[in-house]
UniProtKB/TrEMBL annotation:
SUPFAM superfamilies: NAD(P)-binding Rossmann-fold domains (SSF51735). Coiled coil: none annotated. It comes from Serinibacter salmoneus. SMART domains: CoA_binding (SM00881). This is CoA-binding domain-containing protein.
């Protein structure tokens, strides 16, 4: 049982966020292929119509794309800020997202911050926590087969013989 009061958007609401969005900024993008941010960036660049901006102050190019030092450096306001940063960094990322004119703050799997969610919501942002943007995009766009699924339903039960 969760002790948090925050409720994530429903699946239908998350699908609406993705449909309304054109630009995604990945904060904490990495050039390391073993990192989740690399995999998500690779997927979004190859399997979506999103304009993808990579943000990392310590990199200049990842996956052949330019990397921006901060959200303030992006050429256009992002619709979604997809965050791959530590818990303690999230309040600062929220401030940057608000300053950049983002509409949605999306915290990846395992990332949850009630205060950031509350502050973001009060400032007019849609906030999604503990969800993978790649999985959600694939789920709503029939791309789960890329991860070995093609049914649209994730289930751990064995098929009956």
């Amino acid at each position: 049982m969760s002790t948090t009061a925050w409720l994530n958007p429903t699946a239908t609401e998350r699908q609406g966020i993705l449909r309304r969005s054109r630009r995604v900024a990945i904060v904490g993008a990495s050039g390391n292929p073993s990192r989740a941010s690399y995999f998500v960036a690779s997927y979004l660049l190859s399997s979506s119509d999103f304009e993808v901006y990579l943000v990392n102050p310590r990199a200049s190019e990842i996956l052949g794309q330019p990397v921006y030092a901060s959200l303030a450096d992006l050429p256009h306001p992002p619709d979604i800020v997809d965050v791959f940063r530590r818990h303690d960094d999230l309040p600062g990322v929220l401030d940057e997202a608000l300053g950049a004119g983002a509409r949605t703050l999306w915290l990846q799997l395992g990332s949850w911050h009630d205060d950031v969610a509350r502050r973001g919501h009060e400032a007019g942002l849609e906030v999604v926590m503990d969800r993978c943007l790649k999985i959600e995009h694939a789920r709503f766009h029939g791309g789960l087969h890329l991860a070995g699924f093609n049914t649209g339903v994730i289930d751990s039960r064995r098929a009956r013989a």
